[in-house]
Each structure stands twice: as C-alpha cells, then as structure tokens.
Amino acid sequence: MVISSDSSISQYLENFTFNKNINMDLFSYDNNSEISNNTTIINDINIGNQIYQKYINEYWTSKQRQSSSIHEISYRACFKAQLPRFFINLLTKENDIVYDPFSGRGTTVIEAGILGRKIISNDINPLSGILAYPRFFYPKLNEITERLDEIKINSEYESEMDLSMFFHSKTLGEIISIKNYLREKNENNEEDLIDKWIRMVATNRLTGHSKGFFSVYTLPPNQAVSRESQIKINIKRNQKPEYRDVRHLIRRKTKTLVRTLSENKISRLKEAGETCRFLVKDVRNTPEIENSSVQLIVTSPPFLNIVQYANDNWLRCWFNSIDVEEVASNITMSKTIENWEIVMGEAFKEFYRIIQKGGWVAFEVGEIKNGKIKLDERVIPLGVNAGFKCKGIVVNSQKFTKTSNIWGINNMKKGTNTNRIVLFVKE
Ligand SMILES: C[S@@+](CC[C@H](N)C(=O)[O-])C[C@H]1O[C@@H](n2cnc3c(N)ncnc32)[C@H](O)[C@@H]1O
User: What is the DSSP letter of 36?
Assistant: First the structure.
C-alpha cells in the first residue's frame, strides 16, 4: 500500500492495526506470533497555535520476525530495520529514491535496497560508507575465502600504539596484516568489492564481548573503550587476550550476515547498489543531490551530544586509517538544544530543496533528559519553517527486547521502547 494523497495518512495511522496490515508487511510476518489489535491513541498538541496529532500505536512490532540478517552490523544509536521499512512501504513505490542524510550503519538504505528502491546515503563519518556500501554487493563466500588466503599474514607485526590490552600478539599481527593490505589496495585505487566486504566485516569484528570478536571481552563493538579502561576491565575480570583466528572469524561473520538473505534480496541489493550514491558530507550541504529528486527521507539525527561517535569509534578509525580527531570535529555535537535546532533547521532547508513535490520526511528523534526535552515537538517548527507541512508525530510503542538493551539503544523506559517520528510532506 502506498499513501499518495497526504490526507489519507492520518486515517491510515488512526485506523492502523497490525492485524489489518499483514499483507503490507507479509515477508516479515511471523506466523507463530500473536496479532496485536491495539488501537491508535491520538494526542493533540499545540505548537505555534497549530494543533498537531501524535499517533501512538505498535506500528511495527517486536513480535515480527527479526529483520534481514544483513542488517546485523552494530552502530551506536542505530534504529531497527522495521522503522524505515514501515515508511518505505507506506510512502514510496519501486524505483523511487530513498535518502538517509545521517545514514550510520545504513539501515534505511539497505532496507530500501531490499525493497527495490533506489538509494542515496550520506554521513559525515566515513565509517558509515565503509559499513554500508559493501553490503549491497555480497561476493560469494569462496571468493572471500580465496582473497583472505591471498593476504600475506605477518604475525609479528606490531601496532604504532600499544593494543595488547585488547588483542593477543598473534591476533594483532593478523589484524595489522589485513589493515596494511587494505590500505595499500586503497591507496593504489585497487580495492575491489571483495576487499571492501572484508574491510566491513573486520571493522565490525574488532572488539566485542564474545569469542566471535578479535578482542578479549570488552564493551559491544560499537563502543570501543579507551586503552586505560580496557586494562581496568582486564584486571577486574582477571582476563588476558587469547588468540583469535581473524580470517576464520571474518568468514564466520560473513555466513551469519547473509544467513537469511535470499537470492532475490541479493539481486535487489545489487541492483540498488549499481545506481546508489554514497556521500560523506555535512547534511546541510549536499549539492550532489539534485533538486526535487528524492521521494522519501527516513533518518535519525545525532541527539545533542549524547552519543560520542568519535570516541566510540576510535579503534574502527585506527583500522581504517581514518583520522578520528577530524571526524570528531565534523560531527554535529550540539551542547544545547538551541544549537541543535540551528543545525537541524538548516538541514531541513536542504531536505526541502531535494525532496520532490508529494515527497516525505520521516525524522526519528529520541527523548532527551528522561523526556524533559521533547525533541519531536521541537522538530515540528524546523520542518515547517523550511516549507514542509507537518502531518503529525508517529510514536511506535513496543515492549523492549534484550537485544536493544545490549546494543546500547538508550530510549527504553519502564519496559517500553518508543520511537518518535515526525512526519513531513512537501506539498
Ligand atoms: C543516530 S546516528 C544514525 C544511525 C542510523 N539511523 C542507523 O540506523 O545506523 C546519526 C548519524 O549522524 C551522523 N552525523 C552527525 N553529524 C552529522 C552532520 N552534520 N552531517 C551528516 N552526518 C552527521 C553521525 O556520524 C551518525 O552516524
């Protein structure tokens, strides 16, 4: 179902029950799960003498089978694939362009690719493209194995900084061999899709809290701790890094990543990948994207200075020879809501330029300071000032799962995980 006239969206959200929408979401529907028959709660809110509606329901649900395994790359403050899927199904048709200006691990664009849409991805952090782009082009496992076997491993290599608190010396030698191989390929413009796949998986496997990662037990992979903190963790847990077979773990993670990916989805992703665009730009300045070309933006911005992307990603940046300080200085880290509003207000002006008539923005925000700052309500004037019409706030309310807890999603309270999406249309 595609909502084409913007008046029907309010009816759709109001009348929504999961039961009625099985067809829309068939491929992810879990036959063993109960069907939710919740009715939508609608709250009126007054902003700038205008009444807007908040639609609260379980629009996508933890009872659905998990989304495609290809999404299973961790990234701070990423959303679940069900969120972009809901809006992509509702507001676009095949071959429309879906854009995520704050793309992160690429949840929106990968889901859009699976659903046969064209995609544009942007993120000021170069790690975003490193993690997202290769997943449009899954090479065969045997090609990955062959390539890994070709890489000359020197287990004696030492890093320029002490990383012995994370890795066994032999593991570190293997990591550095792959790091050097990839850097050389990249510098000579010879890095192909198999190399990029290996880079993506290795980046994801650097540190974590199980034997599936290269490191000794540490925080989840999207939150690298400092070397000093890791030494403390090791003392507290009485642990030393054990040897991990890096190439074996890359192959193993590859298998898990593609375990639910059908041939059909692989070819859809490839098709989307062939016309995709990946930008590494500030969200406010993307002249590469033509005026009135995008049908839908589904995105989630940085929330004030709550998530420290650069600090969390220092090891991933090291592996990819990225200057972490430079990334840190570019990322929007507004200390106050007023500064955040200025940056996001400018971002909305850029969105207005590139969205086509009848196109949409679904802008996901969290609750800040335990709900004291309602970012969703602060976003409405930003979009309206840029020229959009606000069609309300969609609040997806679902029971939280253990997984979301592990991966550091911060918006859970009293057993409920809410996503708040402010919805705009360009008339
Ligand atoms: C909340 S995360 C997005 C997560 C994404 N939805 C996902 O599922 O992975 C916000 C992203 O905005 C990026 N970012 C921060 N400031 C930016 C800016 N000024 N321009 C573009 N991207 C920016 C960060 O690097 C981060 O990846």
Answer: P
Residues in contact with ligand 1 by the CB-under-6-Å rule are: 75, 77-79, 102, 104-105, 107, 123-125, 128, 282-283, 300-302, 309, 331-332
pLDDT for 303 equals 83
Domain count, the chain: 2
Indicate if 282 and 409 belong to the same structural domain.
yes
Same domain, 19 and 44: yes
> Which residue from 331, 333, 334, 379 has its CB within 8 A of the most atoms of ligand 1, so it is best to mutate?
331
Asked whether residue 2 is assigned to any structural domain, the reply reads no
- Cβ-based neighbours of 352, under 8 Å, separated by 6 or more: 386, 387, 388, 426
Please name the residue whose Cα sits nearest to atom 7 of ligand 1.
Answer: 78
- Of 103, 114, 104, 174, which Cα lies nearest the Cα of 138? 114
Please give the distance, rounded to the nearest whole angstrom, from the Cα atom of residue 130 to the centre of ligand 1.
Answer: 14
* Cα 264 to ligand 1 centre (Å): 29
Is the same domain home to 281 and 386? yes
Answer whether residue 36 is part of any domain.
yes
Q: Which atom of ligand 1 is nearest to the CA of 125?
A: 25
Q: CA–CA distance from 52 to each of 13, 363, 388 (Å)?
A: 13, 15, 14
My answer on whether 55 and 112 are in the same domain is yes
Segment 348-366, tens digit of pLDDT: 999 999 999 999 999 999 7
Q: What is the pTM of this model?
A: 0.91
Of 166, 154, 335, nearest to 242 by C-alpha is 166
The backbone torsions φ and ψ at residue 83, rounded to the nearest 5 degrees and listed phi first, read -65, -60
Same-domain status, 84 and 151: no
Domain range enclosing 402 = 7-129+261-311+324-425
Distance 104 CA to ligand 1 centre (A): 5
Alpha carbon distance 94, 116 (integer Å): 5
Ligand 1 centre to CA of 336 (Å) is 18
Question: Ligand 1, atom 26: nearest CA belongs to which residue?
Answer: 104
The ligand 1 atom at the shortest distance from the C-alpha of residue 330 is 19
- Closest ligand 1 atom to Cα of 301: 10
The predicted-structure confidence for 28-78, as pLDDT tens digits, reads as follows: 333 333 445 578 999 999 998 999 999 999 898 755 566 899 999 988 888
Q: Strands 294-299 and 97-100: what pairing?
A: parallel
Residues in CB range of 31: below 8 A, 6 or more apart: none
In a shared domain, residues 406 and 278:
yes
Q: How far is the CA of 354 from the centre of ligand 1 (A)?
A: 18
Place of tokens 């020229």: 387
